[in-house]
Write a structure and sequence with these properties.
Largest interface: A-B, 19 and 29 residues
Distance between the termini of chain A: 50 Å
Order of helices and strands of chain B: EEEHEEHEHHHHEHEHEEH
Number of strands of chain B: 10
Radius of gyration of chain B: 18 Å
CATH class of chain A: Mainly Alpha
Number of helices of chain A: 11
Shape of chain B: globular
Number of strands of chain A: 2
Number of domains of chain A: 1
Strand content of chain B: 15-25%
CATH architecture of chain A: Orthogonal Bundle
Structural class of chain B: alpha/beta
Oligomer: heterodimer
CATH topology of chain A: ABC transporter involved in vitamin B12 uptake, BtuC
Number of helices of chain B: 9
Structural class of chain A: mainly alpha
Chain lengths: ~290, ~250
């Protein structure tokens, strides 16, 4: 039973990795916790569902379409909302992202109704391996997330763009006088976050079903994962997601199943009290 | 017969600037700076020295006036585009990316300067030869360097962009006397390499010793612009606090 819980925990953690990565990347550059990640993820799921069921595209292609659509929506929301509030401070941006979250969620609700939707994919029997049950959806998610995380790490730590992103996260004023256009980096960050959330939406829709509240199931755990890993640390976000996933699944050994979600809240609470910078985050220095 | 007048490396005309919602801090400053000279900008606290240099770098929006680098207008350009136009800036504090290595700091300084002439491996090698201590440890995180070493790295990052004009905001602030001397010697080497330097300096003794020209700012206005030898201690006290002009 513990082995199965560990497999399920890793699968849950991998599903959380992309939203928490998107959250931490945006936080690193723009210094605010984007509360709209859940709704953006939901939008990605619906965009992929439309491409998959109406345009008859295979799920992989539908995911690519969703990534493009959501990346464009993120850039547009930056231009219309966040860019105007750039110097207003993180609390104002957080509240604006809450508003954006409600707008996106209700666009999905008005456009597609409250009914749950499923992707047009063949249902296959789970794989049995040494007594463990692994579904095809879990395998698809794991491979997709690992590929995405590796690509993001390569971009951030091995490319001029990633260097510029890390430099902007470190000191935006200095980055500007080193020739880096901050607004360009901000837009690219939104494209990256949007694409990650759209792919997360597809995987979440595969794991459950697509409905207007899909993103809410991932919102608090993704925040907990990003905070646990250290907000602003991409690698930390992935580690945090795996820890949260495992903690949620293994908690059923000692807690009733319906308290599983409380694990994320408990982890956030403990971190805020004991180690505010998370596991891999740098300690904030007040100058 | 026409005599060719050399184009100033930096030409500032009637520059006014201030922070949003506030009054002018820089009040109508004009100055021309010949190529390959060091101009030290000195003045009492709150005289607008750092605001002046930030306005030149594009970090503070100018309200009136113009800024030209080797005859090219840069007044309305973003800070990043000013670097591409040949204007490099080293801030007083937080002048390197602490979470990036020395090599990454240097790489980043040239990666986004497409089309800027003279930027490349040859320039980088020339700059690193000026700062051997930095060149020796490329994989060290900039945040782990001493204050003096960080200042040298900041100079090197600015210089690999092959600037016409280098703006330095209080380069000796917080450094020990040994590093003050080293830093000012580095500024001389930069000037001798063909770069025009404008430095804001609180350390008046160092400024008068190393600069070719000195400009005194008082309450956001240019009080005088002379050779260092013209100013004596008594003159400075009078200029800083008596409001005299030269």
């Amino acid at each position: 039973m513990v082995g199965q819980l560990i497999v399920d925990g890793l699968a849950t953690g991998l599903l959380l990795a992309l939203p928490s990565l998107a959250l931490t990347v945006v936080f690193g550059i723009l210094k605010f916790p984007n509360f709209a990640i859940g709704a953006t993820l939901t939008l990605g799921a619906y965009a992929a569902w439309v491409a998959n069921t109406f345009l008859q595209l295979p799920l992989f292609a539908a995911g690519a379409v969703a990534a493009l659509v959501v990346a464009a929506v993120c850039v547009l929301s930056d231009m219309l909302v966040f860019a105007r509030l750039r110097d207003a401070g993180s609390i104002v941006l957080l509240v604006a992202s809450m508003g954006l979250s409600l707008v996106l969620e209700n666009i999905c609700r008005f456009s597609f109704g409250n009914a749950t939707r499923n992707f047009d994919v063949a249902i296959e029997r789970p794989i049995r391996w040494h007594g463990l049950r692994i579904s095809h959806e879990q395998l698809t998610s794991a491979v997709t997330v690992v590929v995405c995380v590796v690509l993001v790490q390569l971009v951030i730590y091995g490319s001029p763009l990633g260097r510029a992103m890390r430099a902007t996260a470190d000191n935006p004023t200095l980055a500007a006088v080193r020739g880096v256009e901050r607004e360009t980096i901000v837009r690219i960050t939104w494209v990256l976050a949007g694409a990650l959330l759209a792919i997360a939406g597809v995987l979440a829709g595969l794991d459950r079903a697509v409905d207007p509240l899909l993103g809410w199931s991932y919102q608090i755990p993704a925040f907990a994962a990003a905070i646990l890993g250290g907000l602003g640390s991409p690698f930390g976000a992935v580690v945090g997601a795996l820890v949260i996933g495992l903690a949620e699944e293994l908690s059923v050994l000692v807690l009733p199943t319906n308290y599983r979600q409380a694990v994320s809240f408990a982890i956030i609470l403990v971190l805020l009290l004991m180690r505010t910078q998370g596991l891999l985050g740098a300690k904030a220095v007040r100058r | 017969m026409n005599v060719a007048v050399p184009i100033p490396a930096l030409s500032v005309r009637a520059l006014r600037a201030g922070y949003p919602g506030g009054g002018d801090i820089v009040r109508g400053i004009s100055v021309d700076l010949a190529p390959e000279t060091i101009l030290a900008v000195i003045g009492p606290n709150g005289s607008g020295k750092s605001s002046f240099v930030k306005t030149l770098a594009g970090l503070l929006r100018s309200r009136e006036g113009s800024i030209e680098v080797t005859g090219k207008e840069v007044t309305n350009l973003s800070p990043a585009r000013r670097v591409r136009a040949g204007l490099a800036y080293v801030p007083q504090e937080a002048n390197v990316f602490r979470n990036l290595t020395i090599a990454e700091n240097l790489k980043l300084a040239v990666e986004f300067l497409r089309g800027r002439s003279g930027v490349g491996p040859a320039q980088e090698a020339e700059v690193l030869a000026m700062f051997p201590e930095i060149a020796r440890q490329p994989k060290v995180l900039a945040g782990n360097l001493s204050g003096g070493q960080r200042q040298m790295l900041a100079f090197a990052c600015a210089l690999v962009s092959n600037p016409e004009v280098l703006l330095l905001d209080e380069p000796t602030a917080g450094l020990s006397p040994k590093f003050v001397e080293e830093t000012m010697q580095a500024v001389l080497r930069v000037r001798d390499a063909g770069v025009t330097v404008l430095l804001v300096e609180q350390n008046v003794a160092a400024a008068l010793r190393f600069a070719d020209e000195v400009m005194v700012l008082v309450a956001g206005r240019k009080s005088c612009h002379v050779a260092p030898s013209v100013l004596s201690g008594a003159d400075l006290t009078d200029l800083f606090f008596g409001g005299a002009s030269a």
